[in-house]
Amino acid sequence: MKKLLALAALSVAMISCQETATAKKDEFKTGYIDTSVLLDKYDKFKDENEKFKVKSEEMGRPLQAKGKQLEAEMANFQRAAQANGPAWAQQKYAELKQREQALLAERNEVLGKIDQEGGKLKDTLVSQIRKYITDYGKKEKFDYILTTSDDAPTVIFAKDSYNLTDKLVKLLNEEYKATKEKK
């Protein structure tokens, strides 16, 4: 009888533990975001990317002009080398090579600036998105919001109902559109 009573008490305790665990499990709220899709569909990111492309092209134009000028001089050099003799050709070739090296160094410097500015821009946008998602998570009482992408898949599988990407893209685009219209 004592064993039966102890078994009944143990069963009641286990059932109540299961109910508590089930209740807590049901209260647990999680979601994930596909960052590659988010960045691809976020209008502000697209706009800033286009502005950056234009700026990059503008930064590279003087370099392109210098490159074309150097190419023309090299073409003229080949024609003039036969007429002016080997001593002149050797001296002119050394000058052209030196200018080519300087142009390559300038190109690398410009590309470095473009990369640096692009990195800053992307970091700023990602930071803004992260803050927005954090605020959204707090407001909507999420326990976790995870991230995934094709490049770095941290979530291998999740039900589609946990995917917050489209909802957040819509909210971010609405907010961006509102701030864009105020300008």
Automatic annotation (TrEMBL):
Signal found in the keyword field: yes
Molecular functions per Gene Ontology: unfolded protein binding
Keywords: Signal
Cellular component terms (Gene Ontology): cytosol
GO biological process: protein stabilization
Signal in keyword set: yes
InterPro entries named in the record: Chaperone_Skp, Skp_dom_sf
Signal peptide: 1-21
Listed PROSITE patterns: PROKAR_LIPOPROTEIN
Entry similarity comment: Belongs to the Skp family.
Name of the featured protein: Periplasmic chaperone for outer membrane proteins Skp
Species this protein is from: Flavobacterium urocaniciphilum
